[in-house]
Design goal:
Arc Repressor Mutant, subunit A, DNA-binding, homotetramer
DNA sequence: ACCTAATCGAGACGGTACGTCCGGTCTTACT
DNA sequence: AGTAAGACCGGACGTACCGTCTCGATTAGGT
């Protein structure tokens, strides 16, 4: 993710953590674009150059912070009941959004991505693509067990499920368990 | 939409049009947030103050420009076939996005709305809400005719359909007729 | 002196004075090159851009401040006694150097001029050249009255008198009345 | 000259020379204060630390480089004709200034000395003071032989002669043989 | 000839200032 | 009164160097 990474061996891990932590906490407090690189450096107790040495923009920093905070959270369970498993997974994401800085960061990244194609691509590679893969595997396994029709359009199914969550997030609409139930009800009514 | 409207009687309509046109053309060329108020004023041949007198931010200007360009376009047909009518309507929106400055403007407004709640609300009131209303009416009429089950969750249905389009737009994924077909297939499989 | 002067009619005189005053006071306190443009702007309560709009560098600002503070001070008396008149004039300059911010500013300007030929030229035009002219006129009048030999090399005489003062200033050597007397004694021993 | 000399036995002479050479060549090309310690280190193929280990500042480095290049050059002849001897010595200095990197280095050192009293003192001790001594001895010998009046103010004489050269150097005025003649003519008209 | 400690090139680090851009406000002269 | 023009204060941008610091790798002297 670094713009043009120097020797990562010489990197100061203490500074890296301080920068990522400062990013998320500031964005949580002030919102993505009321946060400047200067402010991140100030809060992290770090020189601006140290940020620009390892990342090419605020977006890259925040993306790394978001990825870090997302990584350990989202796994697909496989209990044999695909709808129940998805309910668990989607609920986990919604809670991550609601209860951590991740929501604000993700909103900001999508927003920034609209005028920074590199950032949008990086966001895709690091956050969207892994989910596409995992979702595809879980669905395939459900198809093999006959839980879901073999000809179901997996990609569209995924876009619908995650798209509606992002849509409500970006439009500042609340996302509650009932919404997830309703979404799953409609989308799985005809595919199993 | 004016922030704190002075006397609108004395307003120079020539300047207003120049500003709205400059906004859309600049955003089409450079993307929403590579466009500054200064640049809009420069291109429109207008003083900065003239913009700030009538709008409270770049977002308001662009929203007005977007609304203007949207107004006459997307209506819900009612042929008695709800899925076919939706296909027509959704296709119309996708074409509007693809072929006019509206797409860039809308993307930018969603992005800007993430850190400007007033703008997001205005965007909702002027662009989203009318669609919700129209969609609700069309669906109700379909329910009355028995095309769609009476207990179908209309709001969730709408979020799914428009959410997935916005999702693909914001993630720079192409939206083609086949995608619309697939989305309609899944969402209407169980509701009629 | 402005780098590329905009319309001077629109200029804010209050800001101009604040900037010149801040320059001299800061240089007096900290020395020429411990003073940054940022610090001048801060002390003057002014945006950096307002400095860069009217001057092209710190040097230009300080030169204008120095010239302003020099202007009213140095005039050549003409009592008919050239040596006595020079003693008065030189003493005035030495006192200006000792007792005001002018000394520090002038030192800094000479120093900065060593790597900024434009600044050195501006310094020459605004401070050195007028002195050359005035000195030349006073000497000529002395020659006409027979106080000084007609074939005396006026330019060299001037360089010696003012050069030795600058030399002692730049080498942090004290300059006292006795030094001026000694200099005048040697240089005028043979020319009258 | 080292700031706080470590063990000079272990010093790498190859690096020392590379640093001094790089200093002078860079200053010749770019002027004293367009040259940074980083640039010297880069050109010399040396780590910054190696510079800071042995010198306390850029000024110290340049002073050592200048002293090295000055050492063998300017001696006072003693032919019995004081004016002629001075003409030779002054001409030698002027040529050193004009034809080697010494001029740029000296200019820069004077400039830097204005805001670094330690450097100015070092410059005095290593370059000015030896000249004062030598000049004093040569003048004394001239006085003993009756070439120059016994009560001539030697210190003032020296300041005048070398001050006027430095003055013209710092003001980017040319220094030619005629100037030296004129200066000697005025200053020695009354003292012999 | 070996060992160990200092020096070396390299370059990351926390900082400060650079000169530029733009945000939003205010002022001036013209229409 | 509205407008085009643009100066104003402020704050962030991304870059260059400062002087300090940490790394192995090399190189010296003392044994």
């Amino acid at each position: 993710m670094p713009a043009n990474p120097p020797d990562p061996g010489r990197r100061n891990e203490r500074s890296r953590r301080a920068i990522l932590d400062a990013s998320l906490s500031l964005i949580g407090e002030l919102g993505y674009d009321n946060v400047s690189v200067e402010a991140i450096a100030r809060r992290a107790g770090v020189g601006k150059q140290t940020i620009y040495r390892w990342w090419s923009s605020k977006g890259e920093v925040v993306l790394e912070a978001a990825t870090d905070s997302l990584d350990p959270v989202v796994v697909f369970p496989d209990t044999g009941d695909i709808v129940e498993d998805l309910r668990v997974q989607l609920t986990g994401i919604v809670e991550l959004i609601a209860n951590t800085g991740f929501g604000s960061a993700y909103q900001g990244l999508i927003a920034a991505g609209q005028s920074d194609r590199d950032l949008l691509r990086a966001l895709h590679d690091q956050i969207i693509a892994p989910n596409i893969t995992a979702f595809g595997q879980r669905l395939t396994s459900a198809q093999e067990r006959g839980e879901v029709r073999a000809d179901a359009d997996v990609q569209t199914l995924r876009d619908l499920l995650y798209g509606v969550i992002e849509y409500r997030l970006l439009h500042a609409m609340p996302i509650e368990p009932g919404h997830i139930d309703a979404v799953l009800a409609i989308t799985f009514q005809g595919v199993r």
